Amino acid sequence: MEQEATYRGTVYPWQCDHVGHMNIMWYVGKFDEANWNLFARLGLTPSYLRISGRGMAAVQQNITYKRELLAGDIIQVRSHLLELREKSIRFRHEMTNAETSEIAALCEITAVHMDRSLRKSAPFAETVRETALRYLVEPVEA
């Protein structure tokens, strides 16, 4: 299922390291922003998380760097839900150079739905599960 980008932005000069490309800390930050947009699409909005006392916690994150990004590059991230379980989800982000359409980095994350007061994993609400199932895609090889 083709989806709208979960993040769009620009690489600023101050995000680049001493060799001239975007430093890895900024890849992680941009992927994090994509996380929250993906979660909102699934019904895990800030309001839902506050009212329900729930939260999301990443338990595994793997990043593959494919092409460097330079100051001034326009980027976008598209996100794909790969797996939905009772209390966890696994998804993949693809960061591309919006001008060239080249994949710059891939990030796969497993996250757990949590009860914030108990500090334990908790099942997703049925409404979230129903919405998430519509976004579920087949995994794509890197």
UniProtKB/TrEMBL annotation:
CDD domains: 4HBT (cd00586). GO terms for molecular function: fatty acyl-CoA hydrolase activity. Transmembrane segments: none annotated. PANTHER family: 4-HYDROXYBENZOYL-COA THIOESTERASE FAMILY MEMBER (PTHR31793), BLR1345 PROTEIN (PTHR31793:SF2). This is Acyl-CoA thioesterase.
